[in-house]
């Protein structure tokens, strides 16, 4: 996922960018409100989330949030030291999707980023969930939960199908292990890592396409469809 980090403190931005990169994010750093607005041209510029610090040198952070919302539906998470309820409500009224108060836990921030990205589904992804996915010789019918390879049906368990469907709706995108466990198993990563590895191995075997799901060392998995 591409993430726009709007933060005027270079040291804070560098440290946070390093953490986000380790979790599979492609981070673009904007140091001011104007840089952020320019980065979002054309509409959204492909960003999955905007992480917006309110303490900017050139413009009021709330004002920047309002301008972003007029340009794009990209989720915005405000980051600020203001912990009072009135400030949080004002931020949400200006169009923010979530609000994180400093100092924050990195794990919580990552969870909030994934939460807002799940709630805001792009139009093309919404359409995909209502139809059939074709990935080379693999055909995935999402409404009926049926999978076939070269016309031959493949019997998958419920979790195997959920895992395949998650990866297949965004081919080429790296999904973190923690994110997959959260979305497919609806639980935390602890103690479930081996289960994920077993399901990936089973999918590779049943589909007879070991290269279809690629392991991204230290991060997670991505689906490598023909032509992607």
Mind explaining what this structure looks like?
It is a single chain. The chain has nine helices and twelve strands. It has helices at 10-22, 33-39, 61-71, 85-93, 106-119, 123-128, 158-168, 177-185, 193-207, and strands spanning 2-6, 26-30, 49-53, 76-80, 98-101, 132-135, 138-141, 146-149, 152-154, 175-176, 213-216, 220-223. β1, α1 (10-22) and β2 (26-30) form a beta-alpha-beta unit. The two termini are 16 Å apart.
Features:
single chain, 228 residues, alpha/beta, five-stranded parallel beta sheet, four-stranded antiparallel beta sheet, 9 helices, 12 strands, 42% helix, transcription regulation
CA gyration radius, whole angstroms: 19 Å
The helix/strand series, from N terminus to C terminus, equals: EHEHEHEHEHHEEEEHEHHEE
Major sheet: size, sense and barrel closure? Answer: 5 strands, parallel
Oligomer: single chain
| Beta-strand residue percentage | 15-25%
Give the class from helix and strand content and strand pairing. alpha/beta
Helical residue percent? 40-55%
Tell me the total number of β-strands.
12
Strand order of the main beta sheet, please? 2-1-3-4-5
- Average pLDDT reading: 84
Number of discrete helical segments:
9
**Overall outline:** elongated
Low-confidence stretches: 121-130
End-to-end CA span = 16 Å
GO molecular function, one term: transcription cis-regulatory region binding
Organism: Streptomyces fructofermentans
Domain OmpR/PhoB-type: 130-225
Domain Response regulatory: 2-117
């Amino acid at each position: 996922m591409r993430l726009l980090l709007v933060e005027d403190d270079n040291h804070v931005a560098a440290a946070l960018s390093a953490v986000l990169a380790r979790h599979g994010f492609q981070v673009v750093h904007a140091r001011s409100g104007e840089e952020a607005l320019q980065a979002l041209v054309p509409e959204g510029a492909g960003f999955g989330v905007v992480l917006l610090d309110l303490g900017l040198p050139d413009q009021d952070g709330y004002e920047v949030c309002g301008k972003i919302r007029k340009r794009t539906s990209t989720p915005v998470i405000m980051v600020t030291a203001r912990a009072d309820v009135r400030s949080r409500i004002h931020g949400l009224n200006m169009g923010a999707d979530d609000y994180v108060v400093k100092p924050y836990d990195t794990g919580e921030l990552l969870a909030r980023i994934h939460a807002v990205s799940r709630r805001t589904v792009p139009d093309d992804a919404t359409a995909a969930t209502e139809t059939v996915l074709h990935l080379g010789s693999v055909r995935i019918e999402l409404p009926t939960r049926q999978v076939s390879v070269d016309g031959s049906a493949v019997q998958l368990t419920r979790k195997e199908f959920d895992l395949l469907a998650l990866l297949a709706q965004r081919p080429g995108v790296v999904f973190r292990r923690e994110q997959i466990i959260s979305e497919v198993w609806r639980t935390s990563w602890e103690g479930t890592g081996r289960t994920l590895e077993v399901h990936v191995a089973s999918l590779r075997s049943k589909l007879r396409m070991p290269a279809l799901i690629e392991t991204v060392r230290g991060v997670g998995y991505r689906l490598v469809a023909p032509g992607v």
